[in-house]
Each structure stands twice: as structure tokens, then as C-alpha cells.
């Protein structure tokens, strides 16, 4: 069964792109858990963050603690994989980020995502 859940949030307190990406992934994991999902694939267009999440060694950079939180949180899922996907390969995420720049707060969609994002997600699924 495929489910489409989207969360849009603005991280005004994070100034570094790596920190914002790691926080978005962490919040995405929380959202997936709250939806009751057990098997997930997390795609991100920041290769550095995805590599750090998949690497089990300690990271002493600023995002190290958040990366470790993500690695621990994976235990809530039966299956959880993190994959790098280029920005052009994930149009729904790009459309959601663009929408986020126009928004001032958090928004959630579960199986009733904005029409444009649903269309882009359907196109992405056809490529699998």
C-alpha cells in the first residue's frame, strides 16, 4: 500500500542548509511514525546529509547530534532507507519547498495533498 503524507514547515531558526535538511528529515520520520507507517524510504537532495545518515561513525560537526537522533529514530520502523535523489528527480519535494517559501506556518496533508504535488508524485511513481 502506498501512502502520500506531506508536511510543510519553515525552520526560521536554522541558518545552515545541512541543519535544515537534517531537521526536515527528522520531522519527516516523526510524521511517518505518527501516521503509523512501518516501511519507508526517505529521499533527499542533499547528498552530504544522506551520506552522513547512512554512515554509522560519529559526526562531530554541528549537525552530528541531529544525525544521531535520526539514526536512533530509525528503530521505530520495520524498514527505513535513506536515498539521495537529485533535485530534478524529486519534483514533488521541490514543489513543496517552493510552496513553503510562500507560507508562514506548518501544514500537513495525508492522502489529500495539493493537486499539483499529487500530480508530480504520480509522475514520480510511474518512473519506479
TrEMBL record:
<dbReference type="Pfam" id="PF13456">
    <property type="entry name" value="RVT_3"/>
</dbReference>
<dbReference type="InterPro" id="IPR036397">
    <property type="entry name" value="RNaseH_sf"/>
</dbReference>
<dbReference type="InterPro" id="IPR012337">
    <property type="entry name" value="RNaseH-like_sf"/>
</dbReference>
<dbReference type="InterPro" id="IPR044730">
    <property type="entry name" value="RNase_H-like_dom_plant"/>
</dbReference>
<dbReference type="InterPro" id="IPR002156">
    <property type="entry name" value="RNaseH_domain"/>
</dbReference>
<feature type="domain" description="RNase H type-1">
    <location>
        <begin position="12"/>
        <end position="99"/>
    </location>
</feature>
<dbReference type="InterPro" id="IPR052929">
    <property type="entry name" value="RNase_H-like_EbsB-rel"/>
</dbReference>
<protein>
    <recommendedName>
        <fullName>RNase H type-1 domain-containing protein</fullName>
    </recommendedName>
</protein>
